[in-house]
Structure formats: structure tokens, C-alpha cells
Amino acid sequence: MLKNRQVWAWALYDFANSPFATSVMAVIFNVYFATVVARDAPIRGLTLWTFLISGSTLLSGILSPYLGALADIRKTRKRWLAGCAGAGAVSTAALFFSGPQTLVLTSAFFVIASVCFTVSLTFYHSFLNDLSTDRTIGSVSGFGWAIGYVGGGLCLALNLAMIQKPVWFGLPEGDSAVRATFLVVGLWWLVFTLPFIFWIKEQRDAAGPPRAGREALRRVMDSIRAARKYNKNIFVFLAAYFLYNDVIETVIVVAGIFAAAELGMPESERIACFLMIQFVAFFGAVAFGRLADRWTQRKALLASLALWAGILLWTTTMTTRAEFWIAGFLISIVLGGSQAVSRSLFGRLVPAGQEAQFFGFWGLSGKISAATGPLIFGIVHEWTGQIRRAILSLLVLLIAGMALLAFVKESREYDRNAAC
Prior knowledge:
The chain has 420 residues and is mainly alpha-helical. It has helices spanning 5-27, 29-37, 45-74, 77-93, 103-126, 137-164, 176-191, 194-199, 212-225, 233-263, 267-294, 297-315, 321-349, 355-384, 387-405. The termini are close together.
């Protein structure tokens, strides 16, 4: 399976875009935006950051099902992915021009990059069923997440070197090195998308049907009405995913700010900790992918979420940087695993021939949750002024998601016949 060139090309897109999730959203740009770009904003920088995350992910979530259906109809999933990757990479590189005097422009570039990032994942995820079987879907999904963590970690290591030793790269002292890392992320995204574009094959129709846009909208509405046909498993899973993904997405975008604001962790140590998380997460994603194939996808996912709950509860009383390192190590074990198994479980539920459309719904659920989680966190933080109370609010969402997930039944109805 893993010797298949198309599987590697598919996984390399995760390698390509993961630095946006790590360097931009989780470690460097989020702190830079909250403390430098938004320092003169009328509300707290962290609050504004969570609102930006919420707005961009909500927009991308609304677009995902429609664009997914359109791509299914026209057989243009790869073309849409390439377009989103290109626009996202350029917008990310444009963050080099960010600063306190460019709050609006910086926010616009980030929103464009974030929307392109999340919409592109709709098309990326939809190829999973083409490249796997029921027997291998967990392993292939885990492999993709694992390669993504390697990409995010390597780029983050390069960015750390640029920030710590700017003279090595011909950069002046100050925030120029920080801003230059956004150029690196954009270029990385662009270059490592090329194997996907050149090696992934997608069957194309000679000509798309007339009024494809209207047909795509009709398919989206029909899919919503047809939920009972699939024993409601799909929508029950999406509801569960919405709740627990609230937590995962919020932790990703605020953990670095928590470490800096609550624990006084300096930038170099913070980046080093996230590097550790990236590389340990590689093994966690692979292990949970294989575990899901041996157990069931649902049992493996519930196990990972239970560990998430314990870590969140601990975080509300955390006082030392050493504790943050330990918690980071534990999170790294389940971070990639929970995301990879979520994808493979959903892949087993969707009807054949409608992968991009239904992964669009998965994207909608995930991105609305990625909008809702930071929004709830931001509101609680703005109201109480305490990050720890905002973290506690996430625990309620996680437990509710786990309760719903317990009712999801795995289906083997849709056989995957792709050669691997």
C-alpha cells in the first residue's frame, strides 16, 4: 500500500499544507498577530484572533459541501485543490507584510489563506476512498496524517532557526525573521503540492453537465434529505464530530498563546515544544491508524478522546512549563490519531461516487466547529478574563461529542475497490 506512488503523492499534500496549521495557526503567526499586529485593536488580541478563526472557518465550511458536489459532478477535484493551494500559498506569503499598521490587510490575507486551506482539504480527503480499501483505509488515513506532522515539524524547525539565528539567513534582527517565516510557509505549501498535481489521477468526463452549479446545489439538498437512507449514521457522526472537533481545533490555535500568557514560556521553548509534538504525533497517527484497522474505528476514536478529556482537565490547574511539556507529549499521541481515525471512520460511512460531496459535509461540520469552538473560547475569555475558565468550557463539548459518538455504527456497505 505505502509503496503506491499515488498514496505518497496524496500524503505529500498533507506534508505541503501542514506548516500553515503549525507555523501560522498554532505557533508563530497566532502569537505575532495577538501581541503585535492587534496590539492597538479595540478588543484583546486573543479575542480578535479567535473571532478571525471563527469567521474564516465558518465561510470555508459553508462553501465546502457546494464546491465538493460541484467537483464530483465535473470530476474536477484535483483542479479545485490545485487552485485553492495556489491561492492559499500566495496569501500566506503575503503575511510577510503584516504589522501593527496593517491590521485590516493582514486579517484579509489570513482569512483568504485560511479559507483556501480548509476548502482544499475537502478535495484532499475525498481521494482517500480512491486510494484505499475497507481493510487499509485506517492505515492510509493515518499515514497521511503522519506525513503531515513530519512536514509541519520540519518547516517549524526551519522557522525556529530563522527566528533564533536570523543572520544565518541574511535577515536583520527584530521581527523581520518572524515575518519571513510566513514566506517560507507559502513557498513550502506551493512546492510540495506539485507531486499531488502531477501523480494523482482523476477520471475526467469529456464535458461537464449543463448548469452544473444548479445541479450541485440540488445534490447538496438531496443529500440532506436522504439522511435516513444511511441509517442516520452519517449525520449522527457529523454531530459528534462537530462537538469534539470544537475542542481539538480550539486547542490547536490557542495552546501557544496559553503557554506564553499563563506559563511565561519564551518563544524558543514554545516552538521547541511544538516541534516535539509534531514528531511524536507522527507515530501517534500511524499507531492509531493501525489500531483502528485491528479494533474498530469508533473504539479507537473513543479511546483517543478519553485521553483528550483527561489532558484538558489537567490543563485547568497547570502552573509550570514542565507540565506543559508533559501534556504536549500526551496530546501528540492522540492529536493525529483522533483526526486520522475520524476521517477513516467517516470514509467508511459515505456512499460511493459522492465522496467529495459528503466530505464537503464533513468539512462543513468540522469547519463550523472550528469556528464555534474558538468563538465560545473567545467569548468566555473576554467575559471572565481567564484562559483557564475558557478551557473548562471546552470539556463540556468534548464529553457531549463522545456521548453521541457512542451511538454511531460502522458500516462496511460501501466496498472500496481502489488498487493500493
